[in-house]
Amino acid sequence: MQMDEPGLIEDSAKEIFDAEWTCSPVEPLAVRHPSLTPADAYAIQEAYAALRRRAGARLVGRKIGCTSKAVQELFGIDTPDYGQIFDDMVVEDGGSVAVADLIQPMVEPELAFLLAGDLRGPGVIGSAVLEATASVAPCLEVIDSRILGWQVGFVDTVADNGSSSRCVLGEARRVPELDLAAVEVEMSRDGEVVTRGRGDAALGHPADSVAWLANALAEFGHGLEAGDYVLSGSLTTAIRVQPGNRFAASFTGLGDVSIHFT
Q1: Which residues lie below 8 Å from residue 17, measured CB to CB, with a gap of 6+?
Q2: Residues paired with 140 in a beta bridge
Q3: Distance CA 89, CA 168 (A)
Q4: What percent of the chain shows pLDDT beyond 70?
Q5: Which of 4, 48, 135, 148 is disulfide-compatible with 25, CB 3.0–4.6 A?
Q6: pLDDT tens-digit readout, 144-177
Q7: Is the residue at 50 inside a domain?
Q8: Would you say the C-alpha torsion 222, 225, 227, 232 has a positive or negative sign?
Q9: What sign for the dihedral angle of Cα 27, 30, 36, 40?
Q10: What's the domain range around 88?
């Protein structure tokens, strides 16, 4: 770590934790702390996760962000990152989320992997991910930022738990013959199609995206475990949310998933 400000890791984690629960965004960390490194940002994320666990949340998986060119261009970030998924972030298929409980939400369609085996890097490749996968589910991720106005640089979104907020998982299916890179998705808002994409938008193949995560986690002494859900990254750009919106996504060979915002 390069920071010379004592207590900044814990203080920043508490600031993001409080911002999430009070729905009050904070100024970008990178602007206020120019020396913040990616390693520092992941340390802040871990400290934030510890606060979430202390408050009663249980880790159920991970999410990968900034895997598609469309999302990278949207936020001006050219490197994937990851965040942590807790049990209180998972919404049932067709369920509702109150916009008042969020700050500046957006929706992305993704593929979610349910792991049957552990994956620990370095050296994990896509074929190993497929061998360790029990099933794949259609997914909508609701991203949100505790950083004011989505003014996020890489270290901001990393520290902010990968800008994660909620996720909706459809029916998980065993799909041994399905080419996940060729899966097509169509996402609608209030019945009107707003974006389309393919599985290969996630780092060329969603399984390669999960492999990237397993190897990235290894740098910090972590791994993926059997039973984890892994959101493999958006297949399109992210679409902003307004109260009353209903988002639905249809994936070839995998089915549908939806969420309503009140």
Answers
A1: 48, 51, 52
A2: 109, 168
A3: 9
A4: 98
A5: 148
A6: 999 999 999 999 999 999 999 999 999 999 877 8
A7: no
A8: positive
A9: positive
A10: 59-261
